Amino acid sequence: VWKSAYNCWLQYSDIKDHSRVQEYKKVCSNLVILDQSAIIDSAKEELEKGLFSMLGETPTISYEPQKKASIVLATYDQRTIKEYGVDYEDCNILNDDGYMIQSFDYQGDKAVLLLGKTDKGILYAAFHLLRLIQMSKDINNLTIFENPKNQIRMINHWDNMLGDIERGYSGNSIFYDQNEFTHDVDRIKDYARYLSSVGINSLSINNVNVHQVESKLITKELLPHVAEIADIFRSYGINTYLSVNYASPIEIGDLNTADPLDSEVQAWWSEKVAEIYEYIPDFGGFIVKADSEHRPGPFTYGRNHADGANLLGRALEPFGGIVFWRCFVYDCLQDWRDRKTDRAKAAYDHFKQLDGEFLDNVILQIKNGPMDFQVREPVSPLFGSLKQTNQVLEFQVAQEYTGQQKDLCFLVPQWKEVLDFDTYSEGKGSTVKSIVNGSKYPFQYSGITAVSNIGNDLNWTGNTLAQANFYGYGRLIWDTELSAEEISDEWVRLTFGHDEQVVEEVNQMLLNSWQIYENYTSPLGVGWMINPGHHYGPNIEGYEYSKWGTYHFSDCLGTGVNRTVKNGTGYSGQYYPENAEIYESLETCPDELLLFFHHVSYTHRLKSGETVIQHIYNTHFLGVEQVENMKARWEQLKDKIDTYRYENVLDRFTMQLENAIEWRDRINTYFYRHSGIPDEKKRTIY
Ligand code: GCW
């Protein structure tokens, strides 16, 4: 009963339609494997498993071209060109992770070629073919060329060795327990399958807040275990990375400084890196959170972030390793009385001035927004401002601020807005996606990373529907042109099958869920208003007088943060003029970001025609109704979904409804008591 929850989108359900099965068997009864590697073995294993499960027959295997209906697995070389008449020109467009899927007739039999530029391409092509079959598509006339749009497609774990996960909402770590490695090879391997089935090629396996025990992950004591994990991921085309403690030379070495310009510190890191590569020859590199939220960093020594990042870059360079240096740097000891400091400005202020000063193997890692993964934020103004620095965009698949995998919040529509945002850095058309995919500026390294949302819960993600965010993240960053609708529809069909009612209803739920979550939580882009610490549920002034720089300045007259250049914090001036002007002016600032950029009176009229206060009331009443409606619609699917997954999601909708009601009443009451303005529709406000 639990298998369906565990298997996520790789259900490989048996196909009931007999003629369909015969049709697929005409192509899939044999595998011709023309190259050898661990990654190709994974492709073979996956095809065997998937085809057996869907068609009821394991394909035969041959290592030479056969006169038989076959799936042919090959990299692009002379042999395949000759044997299968592959067009050289066509394949030239494939990049290292790209692939071609081509149907053809081979000596009178139907066959399909899965051709990768490298073995990774073959694996991705195998998953693609299996997806087509699961989606019940015709596979007789395929001509598919796929190149991932982004070079780095990464996931960051925030797992601690104790087993807990910072901001984890789906149980504990699959890697660690009680400060030991779990050695849960089967589970880790299944995780690798999910990752590579959506094209993820890089993975960091420990929290960016690197505590005492985790600092030792780069020591001889623990490296053999890391190597074991890296072996599993390697067979799925995934490189393993570690988050490191910037102060390692002090913490695990015997130096008394971590000054990046100190020659002993430099030598220490070089030796350390050499040692790591003895254990893991294709080790990816480091993720570093430095001078951020009490983590050590180069500031201690009066050095800047380029000094700090380049120290590690230099050590990794001889081995081809890279450094992800996070830009989440701000003053987390702010005085709420200080109205000049604006946390939103911090990343740009710290890093813009260093553009061009980082080594070639250093990548800046930039969160999508200037604050912290809120339900609604503008796009970080660093995108487009850094023109000479490798960079990746950081999303959060874990729903820290978007319902913690209790509430449904499908994030693909949000991520698409970020990727499609035009920075105007080179005039119109300078979208975030064109910057992070390396086409706008010639970065050596670029791409997208995100905080993982999985744990050791049976269904990996707590709420089974949160699997859609994991799937959607991978699919979207592989191909940023896919629409949210396409991704959602794929996920629903792969996960729950093709019953039209289920497909229709679950798609609707996913696609509306971000808007619904926004409706009942913090309004108009202002963010926060959450319980401090764990960040679930409403607490309007929870962060208002704190040191974290997260304020909304509501009083009896109005609400919102004045971030204008004219008489606010000046944040809007960090954008290129086209955007700066839009945000600066009350007339043009989009409604959904109004309170992020402006402090307004409750009677200010939005573009929608509503006043701010009435908008708050309306959206909060509406949000609860929408959750009630989703829950009721889910209940109608009871007979169409297996009990385990049905009950799991129903439970979450019950919690979501409770949460939404709590948010509605607290927000409405807070703003009613502050403004004294009654609801036009006279609904209950306490
Ligand atoms: O979103 C915030 C989280 C912290 C996290 C930090 C970060 C890992 O609340 O838990 O720390 O961001 O991104 O470093």
TrEMBL record:
Pfam families: Glyco_hydro_67C (PF07477), Glyco_hydro_67M (PF07488), Glyco_hydro_67N (PF03648). Residues 461-683 form the Glycosyl hydrolase family 67 C-terminal domain. One of its GO terms (molecular function) is hydrolase activity. It catalyses: Hydrolysis of (1->2)-alpha-D-(4-O-methyl)glucuronosyl links in the main chain of hardwood xylans. Keywords: Carbohydrate metabolism, Glycosidase, Hydrolase, Polysaccharide degradation, Xylan degradation. It is an enzyme of class 3 (hydrolase). The keyword Hydrolase applies. Residues 133-460 form the Glycosyl hydrolase family 67 catalytic domain. Gene3D superfamilies: Alpha-glucuronidase, C-terminal domain (3.90.1330.10), Chitobiase/beta-hexosaminidase domain 2-like (3.30.379.10), Glycosidases (3.20.20.80). It comes from the Bacteria. Its EC number is 3.2.1.131. Residues 8-129 form the Alpha glucuronidase N-terminal domain. Belongs to the glycosyl hydrolase 67 family. Homodimer. This is Xylan alpha-1,2-glucuronidase.
